[in-house]
Amino acid sequence: MIAHHEVRLASSRDACRIAELSRQHVEKGLTWRWTPQRVLSRIRDPASNVPVIYEGGRPAAFGIMEYLSDEAHLLLLAVDDDHRRRGLGRSLVTWLESTAPAAGIGVIYLEARAGNFGARSFYRRLGYKEVGVEAGYYQGREAAVRLAKDLWVPV
């Protein structure tokens, strides 16, 4: 069952929590790069969207997507452990995908750790295709699998 979740754009007060979620769930085992200052710069960037879903008065899930001329790059997506398996990640991706065509975006790209089979499976279920592997993508330590979804082609 997938419930409806209210997705809204992050505000500057969300930057620390988003950075914390990134450190715990995306950058685990890596040097922390998505600091509060870097997240805040994306929140303020007109070429990015940073949606969040609140649970218990604070962000429980977030995404960061950068919009380029005709494609978008999903830079980060994380759901706190206590809120997983409830559709929050799917709600965020669906929201981000719905914003892309209005900006003239036809393809969304993202990377997942090669060893993160759960994330890779999640994105495949949402219609993303694995289109390549990049050795050492994560700070020279771990390969990434590049995934893409063509928004103009029905899944």
Q: What is the helix/strand order?
A: EHHEEEEHEHEE
Percent of residues in β-strands: 35-45%
Count every beta strand, where a strand is a DSSP E run of 2 or more residues.
8
Oligomer: single chain
**How can the largest sheet be summarized?**
8 strands, mixed
Q: State Rg.
A: 15 Å
Shape: globular
Helical proportion, percent range: 25-40%
Query: Low-confidence spans: pLDDT under 50, at least 5 residues?
Result: none
Overall pLDDT level:
91
Category by helix and strand content: alpha+beta
How far the N terminus sits from the C terminus, by CA atoms, comes to 20 Å
Counted by DSSP, the helix tally is 4
For the structure shown, list the relevant keywords.
155 residues; alpha+beta; 27% helix; globular
How do the strands and helices of this protein lay out in sequence?
Blueprint: E1 7-9, H1 15-26, H2 36-44, E2 48-49, E3 51-55, E4 58-67, E5 71-79, H3 88-99, E6 107-113, H4 117-125, E7 129-138, E8 142-150
Report on this structure.
The protein is α+β, with helices and mostly antiparallel strands and 155 residues long. The protein is built from four helices and eight strands, in the order βααββββαβαββ. Strands 1, 2, 3, 4, 5, 6, 7 and 8 form an eight-stranded mixed sheet that branches.
